[in-house]
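seq as requested:
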Amino acid sequence: MTSLSLLLWIALGVLLQLTVYLGFVLKRHWVDYKAISTGGSETSLRQYPDNLGEAGAPVIAAWSGYRSFRVDQKIIEDANRSISSFYLVPEDGQPLPAYLPGQFLTFRLDVPTATGRVEQLIRCYSLSDAPCPEGYRISVKRIVAFPPNSEIPGRASNYFHDHVVVGSPLSVRAPSGHFYLDGSDSPVVLIGGGIGITPMLSMLNWCLVNQPNREVWLFYGVRNSREMVMGPTLEALALEHKNFHFRVCFSAPLPKDLSGSDYHLQDRVDIGLLQTQLPSMSYQFYVCGPAPMMESLVPGLDAWGIPAESIHFEAFGPASIKLGTSKSTTSTDQNKVAVKTDIVVTFSSSGKTLQWQPITNSLLEFAESNGISVNSGCRAGSCGSCQTKILSGEVAYQLPPDYDPEPGYCLFCVCTPLTNLVVEA
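struct tokens:
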């Protein structure tokens, strides 16, 4: 073989390697281009859930129906002994799917009645810690029922406090809900009133582990030190993380409560307080608390000029909350329903056709006021117990429910008729 032939073979080999390399690079770029041209949604959505659990952990699918858990720990969290945290582990010992910080669990409870019977209740409770593959945590406040043994409030929370102990089995549906922290790195304000602190704890703990450089403010409103939960832990986290700003607000401090030590501000969490504390309006706001707080604070954020897409909230029960600048069409639909007086609702199974009453808050209340029994649980669009088939017509939701009803069904507790309606109830 001559020198010229050898050089030609070497050149051919180099050219072949270069061709293979360029082909590989072009293929990679083509895949990236296709991902971008379709909006890149798969990549952006995948990054957030993957970060919820341990690095490199396999993605675990949520289970369907109810799964058996047992209580591993029960810890009293406040001086009033009215809030307890329940640490739950699966009976089958299998790893748990991650959840989005702020979501809740749905429980099916067999609650004893005063007559000795057992009645089944469906209730939802926010997860109160960052996702963990080994177990979940909820924190439940005891609601004093009046009169005793009344249907609501308090039956489920009192059952948790009085009957659920370490080792107790619980039937639990997989985490769900549309109220959760976004996965961006934009500055965030978390506002928890009373037991509304629970989803904020989940959001905060996730942020501090996964996004330590994200600016986070937590405003925690209670009456006094006897209602505080996890105060020392939160104070320690604020000292440890320079981007975490913690504000405790007491509306009615006790004589022994010291300003600057037990609490930071003597006030309710309202718009005026936020305006004096926050350096700007450029935040994502997450709010959870009792109805009076929500009905004041959420519209107040809207009136302050916070964009509707930056206001996220979850209320205890069916609080009436509207955003004047909301882009949601459901509020508009609901307003149309409110002025209609000629809508007829037919309950096919009960054999009743009734004139809709616009003053009624929901189809569930309308049905019950007319002697029609409908299975229900949370009465706030979260548990799905009142899901009912629509045979004809349309309904409207003032706010999107947390539980996604099946196609052709509606949630009676949070919807009203938009047209003449026939339902299977």
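The longest helix spans residues 3-37.
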